[in-house]
Amino acid sequence: MQRIARLLAVIAGLCALVLATEALAQKYPSRPVKVMVGFSAGGPVDVVARIVGDRLGNKLGQPFVVENRAGANGMIAAEGVARADADGYTMLACNSSTITLNKTLFKEIRYDPQVDFAPLTTVVSAPLVLVVNPENPRTANIKSVADLVAAAKAAPGALAYGSGGNGNLAHLAMELLSQKAGIKLIHVPYRGGSAAEVGILAQEVLAVFDPLSAVPLVKAGKLRALAVSSAGRLPALPDVPTVAEAGYPGFDISFWVGFFMPKAVPAPILETLHREIVAAAKDPAVEEKLGSQGVVSVLSQTDYAAKIAKETKELAEVVTAANIKAE
């Protein structure tokens, strides 16, 4: 009888916990939710956070307030969220580098991306575009990835490419291509992707993995697109192959923006936020706004976690092989 009584008490406790958790989810949120962004206002992460935050606020009845804590490649905001109360009222909006690269590049990092956060979903994904300048005599005849690789093999260590800085995703994309193709190039780090784009237009470097700002320049004939870095083709440049299609299977590097909560936030709250963010991204009016920042891309929480683990491992291998040091 005592065993039965104890068993019934345990069952009653579990039922009470389930009911309390369900009640928590039903009344969530009951006050404003803070959305931490580790980059300046007006940048891609900030824009996505505000678009999604506005939709969540309208849908869930409480404001989702963006707070910008820029610095250290998003690490200041990420650490703040990792240390926040797990009550569902502090959210992180960040880019892929904050999650998949910082732990490899920086010794002084006070959060563990795969331990301290509960992934919600990605929202947009922006592939990089491998471009050359058709007006540069040295690249006028380079019209494919194979042409670029052939030119590099003909002049080992003599051809220069640009990126937005050491450890920048564009830097890693070119290093990964170099490793897969067995070529050696000279890296010229600029202060940001825009500066690297200016560099290739000025014929200072021969190639760049450019962000989506390259698309208008490609369409205007100012730059020539050789390939895109994602697993699938870019809708804005449907005739441009992927690097994988160009002969390097498995090549897939993109800049993405996604959302996270502290790890211990109750599952019902995580499920609510995941469901509403996905619904927001699929709403035609919201999707149109998000489209200015990349291709709308949402994942299940499980697939998001798997994506993070895969990219973290792959990028760490690239960093180690190329001996890349953060600036």
From TrEMBL:
Instruction: Say if the entry is tagged with keyword Signal.
Output: yes
Look up the domain of life of the source. Answer: Bacteria
Keywords in UniProt for this one?
Answer: Signal
Is this entry keyworded Metal-binding?
no
Please name the InterPro entries in this protein's record. BUG, Bug_dom1
Endpoints of the signal sequence:
1-25
Family membership: Belongs to the UPF0065 (bug) family.
Q: What is this protein called?
A: Tripartite tricarboxylate transporter substrate binding protein
Q: Which organism is it from?
A: Bradyrhizobium forestalis
